[in-house]
Amino acid sequence: MNEIILKQLSTLIKEFFGDALEFALVFGSRARNEHRADSDVDLMLVFTDVYEKSKNEDFKQMFVSFQKERGLASDVKFRGEFLTLTDLHNAIAGHGFIKDKNRLDIDLVGPTEWSSFNEHRQWLCAMAGPNKFLSGDKNKFIEYQQNALYAVILSALLARKTVVFAITELLEELVTKGKNYLGFCDTQFSRNFLLTYLPKVCEHLKRKNLIKQSTTGYILDRTLALKQLPKTMSKRDYLLKKKFVGSVTTEEDLFSIQKALDIGLDFILDKDASVLNYKDELEIRSKFEDDIPKEGQSLEKITEEFCLKILDGSIRQSNPNYLAFPDAGNSVAALIADILVGFTNQNLIATTKSAPTATFAEIQVIRWLRQLVGFHDTQDFPKNAVAVGGIITMGGTLANATALLAARCKTLPESRVKGLQALDIKPVLIIAADTFYHYSHIASFWWLGLGEENIVYVNTLDDYRLDCDDLDRKLSEHNNGKTSRVIAVVSQAGDSRTTTIEDFNKVADITRKHNVWLHVDACHGGVLLFSKKHRERMNGIERANSISIDPHKGLCTPYPASAVLFKDIEDCSLISKSTDITIQKGSYDLGQVTPFLGSRAFDSLKLWFLIKHLGTDGISELIEYRYELAKSWHAQIERSEFFVTLNDVELNSVVFSISPKKLSKLLRGENLDREILGKLNKLLHDQVYREGKLCIHSFDIVDVADRIATGVGKLRVLGVTLGNPYTDAQAFPDHIKYLDSLVYQIASQDAS
C-alpha cells in the first residue's frame, strides 16, 4: 500500500472522527510491506474514553468502499479494530492473558478461538508492531507502541518454562509460533523488526530489574515480572468463566450452542423419523438412577448423553403424524422468539432492573388479545400494570386458576383479608358435566381453598353444549346468598375433547340474570378470535368476566404461552400485589398482577413474534386449514371399516370409537357393551402409541347423543385434535387403513 493511499486513509479518518481520535495505525501484512494482492488493510483506531461508538458502523462501510475503490482486498467481516485508551491500557496491563501460578498460559488464537477477552491480546500485538502510524497524536502513539512491545515480550518470557533465555532463542520462539501466538509472522521483515527491538526491550527490562544479565543471556524475575501485568486472569477463574457465556466465550465454545440448535432442527425436520421411538418406562427410568455428579463433564459428552437418554424416546409433536394434540410448536417465528427469551433473560416481574422494554411488548400482546375479544377499553395504552386488563401465564391451568381467584375476590371480598375461615356461606363453582370440564376447573377451586365438594355440574346437551335450563335452575338453587353463593360459572370455547364452542350469549344472559361471574375457558377455541370465517361463532365471548387463552395449543408456539383476560380492567386490582421494593405500586411492573408467580420469563415474546410474522390474516388461514383437516378426518372415519364418530366438527377435534355395529360382522354378532368397547379402544390406542407411526388420543367421554348405541354413559374413546400445518389430509386414508388393520388384529385376538 503506497504512501498516497496511506495519506488518503489518514485524511478520511481525521475528517470522520475529529478530536475523538487519539491515533490510528495500520498493522498486519500491509504494515510489513508484504505486497500481496489478497491482503486487506488491518486498521486499528484508538479513541478517547468518551466517543460516539454509534459512528463505527458508518465508518466501517466507508472503509470497505475506500479499499474497493483503490483495488485493495477488503475483509467485510473484520473491518478494523476500534478501542479506547482504557482498552489499550488494560491490554498493556495483561488483560487477555491467563496466569497459571507463576507462568502465563498462552494458547494460539485462531478464528475459532476468538473472544472479546483475548481480543485485548490482538490489540496489544497490533500496537507492539510491526505497524505504521496513520494519524493522530504521534508522540502518544510511540509511547504506547513501546509499552505494548515491553508487555508482549514480558508475556512471552513469562510463558516459558525456564527463566533463562537468550535473545536469539526468544526471537525464534516468537516467529516460529506465528501470528496466532503473539502476532509475529515468520517473515524476514518480522525477524528484522525483532532483531532491532529485542535488545532495546531487554535493556529496558534490565533497568526495571525484571531481568538480569547472565553469562549465557538473561534471567527473568517471575515475581516482579508478573506484577507488571496486574490485569491477567487466573486460570481457575478462566476455567470457571468458560462454563458461562461472556467475554471468554469463543466461536469454538459457541459450536455447542449451534450443535444444540442443529439437534433441535433435525428433531423437527427429520422426515424419516417416527412420531415416537417407544421405550418401556422401566427402561427409561434405569437411565436416570445415577447419583448427582461431583465433577463436571464436557458439553459434548452431555449433549451426546442427552441424545441417547432423552431425545431418543421423546415425542415428536411437530411430526405431521402426531394427531393427539394441536401443540406442534413449530412456528418459525415463535421458535426464534423462544431462543431469544433464553438469551435475553428478561424478568417480567418489574420494569426497573428486570424488563424495561419487554414489559411494554407484553402489554401490547395483551392489548391485541383484548381487541380481538372485543373488550371496549382497548384504544388507549394502559396507564399502569393494573390497568392492562390481563396477564400472561405459564399455561392454561394457571390462567384458569387466576381467573377463579379474581372471581373469588370479587364475589367474596372478605376472603382476601380475613381468609376463608371468616365465611359463613358456602362458595360454589358451576362447571360442565363429567368428562366435559377440564381438570383445572376442579383443581383450581380446591387449590383456592374453596372445596371440591362445592362444585356443581351442569347437564350437557346432545351437541355437547351446556343445558342452559339446567344452568338457570342450579344458579337459582345455589346462588341464594343465604347458605351459598356461586363464585363463577365456567363455560368453554372448545372443550379439550370435542372442542365444541359454547353459545356464549345464551350463557351470559343467564349469568347476568343471577349476577354471577362468567369465566370462559378458551384455551382451545380462543384461536377462532383470529378467524375471518368462524369468528362469529365466538360472539358473546366479550360478555365474559374473564377468558383464558392458550396460544401454545392453537398457534404452534413452544410451551408455555397462555393468558387470562378480564372484561373490566378494574378486576385486575382484585389480584394485585405490591412489595414497594421490587414491585412498585402504580407502576408498569407486571408482577403486581401475576398471582402465584414472582420471577417470570418473557414468554409473550413468542406470541409477539408469531402475530407480527403471520398477521391476523395468516393465522386465519392456519385455523381454516386445521378445520378442513378435521372435516376430512371426520368424513373418512365415517367411511372407515370399523369406526364411527361421536361429534360434529366445530374447530379441530374429532372424537371417534370402534363401532359395535361395524365390528359385529367380525365378531359374528357378539354384543359389545361399553366396558368391552372401551377396552378395545384403549388396546388400539396403546398399540398405536407403542408402534410410533401415528399418535392419537384416548379418553373417557359420555356419549350424550348415544351415537354408538351402547346407552348413555361414560365410555373410553379415541380422538384427534389437529393443529400442525404439515399434517396432510392426503395421508388420512393410509392412517385410517392402518387403524382398521389394528382393529381387525386386536378383535381377532380378543375373539380367540
Task: Kindly describe this structure.
Helix 3 crosses helix 4 (119-128) and helix 5 (138-159) packs across helix 8. Helix content is 42%, strand content 13%. The longest helix has 35 residues, at 604-638. The mean pLDDT is 94. The chain starts with a helix and ends with a helix. It has 25 helices and 21 strands. With 752 residues, it is α/β, with parallel strands linked by helices. The strands form five sheets. The chain has a seven-stranded mixed β-sheet with strand order 11-17-16-15-14-12-13, sandwiched between helices. Strands 3-2-1-6 form a four-stranded mixed β-sheet, sandwiched between helices. The chain has a four-stranded antiparallel β-sheet with strand order 18-19-21-20.
Please summarize what this structure is.
By secondary structure, the protein is of the alpha/beta class. Helix content is 42%, strand content 13%. The model has no long low-confidence stretch (mean pLDDT 94).
Share of helix among residues?
A: 40-55%
**Largest β sheet strand count, sense and barrel closure:** 7 strands, mixed
Rg calculated over all Cα atoms: 35 Å
Strand order of the largest sheet: 11-17-16-15-14-12-13
Low-confidence stretches: none
- Termini, distance in Å? 92 Å
What best-fitting shape do the alpha-carbon axes yield? elongated
Quote the average pLDDT.
94
Number of strands: 21
- Give the number of helices: 25
Binned strand content: 5-15%
Q: Which structural category fits the helices and strands?
A: alpha/beta
